[in-house]
Design brief:
Blueprint lengths: L28 H16 L26 E9 L4 H4 L4 E6 L12 H4 L5 E3 L1 H13 L5 E4 L5 H11 L8 E5 L5 H7 L5 E4 L6 H8 L4 H16 L3 E2 L5 E10 L5 H15 L4 E5 L28 H13 L4 E2 L1 H11 L1
Parallel strand pairs: 2-4, 4-5, 5-6, 6-8, 8-9, 9-10
Antiparallel strand pairs: 1-2, 1-3, 7-8
Helix pairs in contact: 1-5, 1-6, 4-5, 9-10, 10-11
Length: 337
């Protein structure tokens, strides 16, 4: 209903899209077929993500992500917990993929990211999920943890378009993405929503078993920005195209957050839309006991304090960033007042 629509009055004119249609509608059938073919080639000697396993997933060989020929879908539903500009009033049409190419010790979705929860689905089945979410009135299709199944998603999108898909595609990722996979997504994805988790190689290795995480995330976000630019909105206040970066504030990582925000402002754009998130909680392996009898990851064994949230937001503002997800900014401001 009109009364429930998001207030777009405050959105600057340069961040508006008046006549939006999903990018994929401009692609020819031949262009889609070329993307599908390239994706299948990527799976044959798997380079879908920075792990570069080199296994033949077309014949169900599996390595780091434990995913073979077909993606494993954990769930699909209208999600009302995403950013307001995505969830709107009818929800973001999320499709959660099981398994992951990272090993984050604190993962809040570890039951699906580290386990094959759900069922394998081919391209047509995923396309049917997308169309079902569209029929329910969702504002977008939101692929959650797509890094390791990007080629399969190219197939699914190509299958859904001739069946009537007309919603923007959201690519909701850890940012540990392969550049070739992201280039496959060029012209298919409207909204990229990467995390930027850590800055240092040491932290990345300790908490996600990926020493090169920050380097790969910087490459990925730069490519995303090249493709779609800063986040822009329709007249209804909903996001239509661009990059939205999430950063989860974690205990004791103020310096890493500051480095991430400085890089985003300097190398991507001061207009980058950022969600500074404060919902970290100790999960998964954080409470495990090490050989010395102490918690294995004691440094992140608590929720972030309000002063840490304040410090992260202050660092982002010092870096020159100014476009923030309002619910978290207001919550932090209230907590510090």
């Amino acid at each position: 209903m009109a009364s429930m629509r998001l207030d777009a009055v405050a959105v600057e004119e340069r961040f508006r899209i008046l006549d939006f249609e999903p990018a994929y509608l401009s692609l020819s059938r031949a262009a889609l077929e070329r993307k599908v073919e390239a994706g299948l080639h990527e799976l044959e000697d798997c380079r879908a993500c920075p792990r570069n396993c080199g296994c033949n997933r077309l014949v169900n060989e599996r390595r780091v992500c434990h995913t073979g020929r077909h993606a494993v879908v954990a769930s699909a539903f209208p999600h009302f917990g995403e950013e307001g500009c995505l969830r709107g009033w009818r929800g973001s049409g999320t499709i959660f993929f099981s398994l992951c190419n990272l090993r984050c010790v604190f993962c809040q979705n570890w039951d699906i990211s580290q386990r094959a929860s759900g069922q394998e689905m081919d391209a047509h089945s995923i396309a049917e999920l997308m169309l079902g979410l569209q029929a329910q009135g969702c504002h977008n299709i939101n692929f959650v943890t797509p890094e390791h199944v990007a080629p399969q998603l190219v197939e699914a999108i190509a299958s859904a378009i001739p069946l009537g898909l007309r919603l923007p595609i959201v690519y909701n990722t850890s940012a540990y993405d392969g550049l070739e996979s992201l280039r496959l997504m060029d012209g298919l994805v409207d909204i990229y929503m990467p995390d930027f988790k850590f800055w240092s190689a040491e932290t990345s290795l300790r908490l996600a078993l990926a020493r090169d995480y920050s380097e790969r995330a910087r490459e990925a976000i730069s490519e995303m920005q090249r493709q779609v630019g800063p986040l822009r909105f329709g007249p209804d206040g909903l996001a239509k195209r661009g990059v939205l970066v999430r950063h989860l504030v974690m205990p004791g990582q103020e310096a890493e957050a500051a480095a991430i925000f400085e890089w985003l402002s300097r190398e991507i754009s001061r207009d980058t839309y950022v969600n500074v998130m404060g919902q970290y909680r100790p999960e998964y392996k954080v409470g495990e006991i090490a050989r010395d009898g102490q918690p294995a990851f004691v440094e992140i064994g608590r929720r972030p304090r309000s002063v840490e949230m304040d410090a992260a937001l202050a660092a982002a503002r010092r870096a020159g960033l100014w476009r923030f997800d309002e619910r978290h900014v207001r919550g932090a401001d209230a907590a510090s007042g």
